[in-house]
Amino acid sequence: GINAEYGSSLYELVMDTSTNHIVSFLAPRAGAKVRFRIHDPTGMVEKIMPKYFRHTKLTSFMRQLNNYGFSKVKPLDSDAPTDETFEFEHEKSFSPTDPICCR
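The chain above was modelled as a monomer; its predicted structure follows.
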C-alpha cells in the first residue's frame, strides 16, 4: 500500500519555495502530470531530508520514489548541466488533497 505520510512529506518538500534552489517542480512533459528536479543533491541530503524523513540517503529516497511510481528521467533542457542533477516524473496528478499520485 501507499504510505500517506511519505506522500505528504514529498509534496511539502517539493512545494517549499524557499528550497527551490535545491528541489522544485518543473512543467510536466507529454504523458506525465508531475515532474520535479533535485538541483542540489548535497543540499537535499543535508538540509531537506532530515526535516522530512528518518533516513538521509539519497539512493534510498530515489528507490522510494521508484516504489511509488515515479520514474527518473533525463532533463530536457540545458539548465541541468551536471550528472548531479536528477529529475523525476509521474503519470498521475499530485496535489495537497491527494499528495501521493499513485494509488
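The mean pLDDT is 82.
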